[in-house]
Amino acid sequence: MSSAGPEDIFLSTSLASYFDEKLLVLLRDGRKLLGLLRSFDQFANVVLEGACERVIVGELYCGILLGLYVIRGENVVLIGELDLDKEELPPHMTCVSAGEIKRAQRAEKDAMVLKGSMRKRMEFLEFD
């Protein structure tokens, strides 16, 4: 069994300065979660209070409230502090309801499927 070296202690305490701060957590599946850091451990498991999933489709966005949220460390790609003095999103973005953002996601997915099926039908042309 190995003991924690100085670099391990530094890494595990580096998040300690962000307790009670609003953070953005980017997950492996592309989701973006925002919330107040309440706890973490050496495996980057994180507990966010008042967590919200930020969904962006084109120029539309929505914040889906999740409440108290536990994130397994292996799913964390990035953790960053949000500057509360700055706007989170550009002014041209439009906030919509969760239902509207889900419809926009479906439309975007359908467009990608259609584009993929069109490409498949035209494979015989062998574009370079």
What is this entry, summarized?
By secondary structure, the protein is α+β, with helices and mostly antiparallel strands.
Describe the structure.
This protein is α+β, with helices and mostly antiparallel strands and about 130 residues long. The chain has helices spanning about 5-15, 100-120; strands at about 20-25, 30-40, 45-55, 60-70, 75-80, 95. The chain has a six-stranded mixed beta sheet with strand order 5-1-2-3-4-6. It contains two helices and six strands. Strand 3 and strand 4 (about 60-70) form a beta hairpin.
Beta fraction: 35-45%
Radius of gyration: 20 Å
Helix content, binned percent: 25-40%
Widest sheet: strand order?
Answer: 5-1-2-3-4-6
Order of helices and strands, N to C?
Answer: HEEEEEEH
* Intertermini distance: 55 Å
Classify the oligomer. single chain
Number of H- or I-type helical stretches: 2
For the structure shown, list the relevant keywords.
2 helices; six-stranded mixed sheet; alpha+beta; about 130 residues
Write the layout of secondary structure elements.
Blueprint: H1 6-13, E1 22-27, E2 32-40, E3 46-57, E4 60-71, E5 76-81, E6 94-95, H2 98-121
Parallel strand pairs: 4-6
Antiparallel strand pairs: 1-2, 1-5, 2-3, 3-4
